[in-house]
Amino acid sequence: MFIRNCWYVAAWSEELSGEFLTCMIINEPILIYRKSDDSLVALEDRCAHRMSPLSLGRREGDDIRCMYHGLKFSPAGQCVEIPGQEKIPSRLCIKSYPVIEQHSWIWVWLGDPELADPALIPPAHGGANDEWYLTRNHLDYDTNYMLICDNLTDFSHLGYVHTESFGSDEQWAQKAPTITQLDRGIRMSRWLSSVPPIPPLGEAAKHAVVDHWASYDFLVPGILIFYNALYPVGTALQANLEAPTEALGTPLYTHYSIQAVTPKSEATSRYLYSWGPSKSLGTEEESAIMRTILLKAFLEDQVIIEAQHKVMEIDPSRKPIAIAADKGVVMFQRTVERLIKAEQQLIPLVTTD
Known about the structure:
By secondary structure, this protein is of the alpha+beta class. It has two domains: about 110 residues, Rieske [2Fe-2S] iron-sulphur domain (Rieske Iron-sulfur Protein, 3-layer Sandwich), CATH 2.102.10.10; about 200 residues, Naphthalene 1,2-dioxygenase Alpha Subunit, Chain A, domain 1, CATH 3.90.380.10. The strands form four sheets. A seven-stranded antiparallel β-sheet has the order 12-18-17-16-15-14-13. The two termini are about 30 Å apart. The C terminus is likely disordered.
């Protein structure tokens, strides 16, 4: 099951370069386009007549005409013309979804339109900002999206899956993070002392090991907002293992990432991500190096997560057995379950006499 009352990332804004952008989100085919005033429209990509994809149709002003039998639909999803028929049934309409462009992403709300609050879009820096050099990319997975979310709420795998890409060590498994429950997600933070710098760039490249502060929010439906700061060894103890402040001085290097996991179906997902250094301590050239590192790391993740999914499909009755490192995983899973249950309680029961 999926949360419906939340904002899903459909695509990077730049992906809407042609007339239409199509995507699948929680088993719903969606068509996105810009109106003449540059505002966005998100419609069900399915003609109400014979279910032909409207993305195979043509634009007529801000409307779309289905090129199977010629029905025309407005941006609100209402049929406004049927060739050879004057009367248009009111039920001849398609879904229209709330859609917002923010943080260089296109966000679509799949639930009750009356509850589509823009304030629920997670706060993040987009590609165009004054603080970070961010590069963008995405991967398509053949796996359930919650397995990717599990991966992102348990970084103990870094010292095993990503030794070749990030060069991370086993401290990521040995040092448990502090985890805080949020209303729509979790917050994880930790210091790692005397670890190889990730990435070994800028001033951090002059140090074989550093103290690494890592803190991120992971919010529904699967949005990661990740801040990292690298300091000279000894800084973690100086900070009493608390969040760093300006009193600690300027970090050697800082970097930031935003990532989004969007379920396309029960067994397919899209993973959109960016990563880059601060403009005060890094360079645009270093952001390109980091893009290469990150793609290598995420391809490592993809191999093991898709393999995990295939094994789990063999016998769905076999359930994973949690260990201490799964605390964040379990907390986020329960958050998703709580929000789905709350949605179900909002749906009125249909009774018959």
